[in-house]
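Lab notebook page, bench 4
Experiment: in silico fold of construct C2
Operator: M.H.
Input chain length: 414 residues
Purpose: comparison with the prior construct
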Amino acid sequence: MTHSSIRLRRGAVTAVAVGTLLVPVAGGVAFAERASVPAAAAATDPPVAPGTVRELTPAVTKQLDAALQQLFRDSKVPGVAVGLWTPDKGEYVRTFGVADKATGQKMSTDLYTRIGSETKTFTVSALLQLVDQGKVGLDDPIGKYVSNVPNGDKITLRQLAEMRSGLFNYSADEGFYKALTSNPDKPFTPQELLAYSFKHPVLFAPGADFLYCNTNLILLGLVVEKESGQQLGDYIQEHVLTPAGMHKTLFPKGAEFPEPHAQGYTVQTAGGKLEDSADWNPSWGWAAGAMISTLDDLRTWAPTVATGVFPDGKAMVSAATQKQRLAVVPTTIPGAGYGLGIFKVQGWTGHNGSLPGYESLTIYLPEAKATLVAVLNTDVNYKGGEPSTAFGETITKIVSPGNVFNLPAQAAAR
């Protein structure tokens, strides 16, 4: 399954990297080699029960430093920033490498970054607010709001949000891949993106299976616009970002990218060679993957989206609606489930993101009230998987061995 991603793969039915979960393949899901992870906590350390995290003592901090430095060297990512915050066990924030390979600018914690599929968590939050307002119903068919959707009279908004629509993923279309990589500055409209999907037959009946699919979020973005009367980015800014105090997170209208930001490095290019994708127009990801944020803002977002409560204690969505959001459907990865635009993996709740040049991971362990965020300026695979997963797994093996974040790599399906 693919995560929260908007990852592109030529001719591949993969999840777009905006968080990575599953990519169902004919005959099952093929898993690629898992990334190796440096040694976890020493056997002499006190045991850590599920739902808890280890005290971030100098010894544990030293372990984390050594493990992450080794992973940084092995994975050859240009730059990465990680943060782990707890209410009572301390915090750990580190950067490695460079934000810009040309200038040697160091990676730092204040940089803006593209967050890919983490955008899905904001789009679905907007949708759920409209559910609470009685403007839409999760079990309404998408055809009530958007015309000419294949199976539109049967696919519900809930099935779109939980990745069980059966629609073809537009970002897996060969023509779309060529259009984007041949002209990365090109702006795409939501209708153009849907057209790449709708020319393909549906893959399965609504609700019959799980397939991570960016098409679903484009449709939900259109629902938010139709029923709120606002552009999606404006609605998210007013009703989600501002109340959350996330002043360095935005839904860009074009290719704008605030300074300072990391440059992004990808091989998802027309010629397959490494290129800087910082100035690519993210409109092709729109409601599924266009947003920009920072390490610190994502620190705020992790508990907000996982609990449905803003930092000031006010509800972002009602408790009843949040309960529905967190009711996960099965995936083919042990210990991983997908809810309404959010995943649960080995006890951690959140989403990841991946689009050309950037990856991110934002997760929350509710029992410990622990937040883990990682942002990287590359999407180049490490040992067949997303490097953000390797960093999340490395950290959690040490600090929360009872809840090790793990999303095995998936082979692309053709």
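Observations: The longest strand covers residues 348-355. The longest helix spans residues 58-75.
Next step: discuss at group meeting.
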